[in-house]
Design goal:
alpha/beta; 9 helices
Length: about 300
């Protein structure tokens, strides 16, 4: 296993995220393609794919995707994982470490859509691609009750908004959804956007504002599929939200939980004190990350049929 110094990792992640925002805005010395490849390599080097999980590309009705299958997979058990990266960066290859860990511990096949990224494809391209990938999965004969959604950061928001969009398009709901460090409010009005700005080790309010401008393409920040704190979430399956106590997104994650609960969605909110953005990545290096992964897996298993 690669040895990781947690503070150093977050510092480098913050620096690389800043480079993504600059390149996406047409600034800085590097192209966005170069930045994306370097970002992928940073994740691959930091979080190598486990040896006991295979990764196979698939075409999910026109949406490129990757299937992760652990050696111990329960064939009827499926997870759809929506990667993070502020809708600007990230891909299935870079997320093989975290996805592989979830696949092995849940004993599930994991479908990871390689959804289109901004600024080339602005909102709602990512949501549309994820809905299409889910529809494709159901068309393969997978029962919706055998599927759990999960995602982190931008993907954590999509773990809610994609289900809202799928519901509105007449698709059956999956068994449950897990939103990890969700970027749930692009208005960035939560109190912790200010009180934890500078304490959050990798995410800043200014950076999120810059990313949102690039992603939305003129769409209002309070659009319910971009900011699910404003969505009608009635009829969604049970949701687990996991958020770190040092995240600027903390207040908006709490607001998302309130929105869901108000709409009678069974909702659980886990706040891990002193943790930064998507600390789950550090499983095997940080006890709190192992705890969060175990909690997410247990939640999924609670709502999936018995293996």
């Amino acid at each position: 296993m690669v040895s990781i110094d947690v503070p150093t990792f977050y510092q480098e992640w913050a620096a690389r995220s800043g480079g993504v925002f600059a390149a996406a805005a047409g600034q800085g010395p590097d192209t966005l393609d170069d930045i994306r490849l370097a970002y992928r390599k940073f994740f691959q080097d930091s979080f190598p794919a486990p040896n006991w999980v295979s990764f196979v590309p698939v075409d999910a009705d026109g949406v490129p995707a990757e299937y992760a299958t652990p050696a111990n997979a329960v064939t009827s058990r499926h997870l759809v994982y929506l990667h993070g990266g502020a809708y600007l960066v990230g891909d299935p290859q870079g997320y093989r470490g975290l996805v592989g860990t979830l696949a092995e511990r849940l004993r599930a096949r994991v479908l990871v859509p390689d959804y289109r990224l901004a600024p080339e494809a602005v909102f709602p391209a990512a949501v549309d691609d994820a809905v299409a990938a889910y529809r494709w999965l159901l068309d393969q004969g997978v029962a919706p009750g055998n599927v759990v959604f999960a995602g982190d950061s931008a993907g954590g928001a999509m773990a809610i908004s994609v289900l809202v969009a799928a519901r509105d398009r007449g698709l059956a709901m999956p068994a449950a959804s897990i939103a990890i460090s969700p970027w749930a409010n692009l208005e960035h009005t939560g109190a912790t956007m200010r009180t934890l700005d500078g304490i959050d080790p990798s995410v800043s309010r200014a950076g999120l504002h810059s990313a949102a401008d690039l992603v939305l393409g003129g769409t209002a920040r309070n659009n319910p599929l971009a900011s699910p704190v404003f969505a009608d979430t009635r009829g969604l399956p049970p949701v687990l939200i996991q958020i770190g106590g040092h995240e600027v997104m903390l207040s908006d994650a709490i607001r998302l939980a309130t929105r869901l609960a108000t709409d009678a969605v069974p909702t659980r909110l886990d706040i891990e004190p002193q943790m930064g953005h998507v600390w789950h990545l550090l499983a095997g290096h940080l006890p709190a990350a192992d705890k969060a992964i175990a909690a997410a897996v247990a939640f999924a298993e609670e709502h999936l049929p018995a293996a």
